[in-house]
Amino acid sequence: MMIGKGENKKSMAYVGNIVALIKDRLDKRELGFHVFNYADKPDFSMKELVYVIENKMNISVPKTKIPYWLGMLGGFGFDFISLITGKKISISSIRVKKFCATTQFNASKVHSNFNAPYTLKEGLNFTLDHEFINPKEDEILFYSE
Structure pTM? Predict the structure, then answer.
């Protein structure tokens, strides 16, 4: 189930590409400070992201779309419940707003002289395989919000 139209775009980066970038920068040994954003391009819309995940995981996500205003209303409801109970709830109006927002970063500077070894789709597929399809029981996993 998606909140909004799913056309909002998200900048993301595959960790394998970040490692390759760091190695590339160390190998070049350029003097001075070089500051830039990194994100794999092109950015996925939420619809595209869900499509890639569905295909890799061989699942079907419900195609129902909840209007943004209704999703926010639900988020405010959870905010109120959290306020009354004093317990933090993982769903909130702030999370709904962040989920539905476009969060894109300009990474043209880094990509002008670095070619990522993996596409964003490949990186996402590697991550899904490693974390969900074929997880290793003896490895350390990191969880985030």
Answer: 0.81
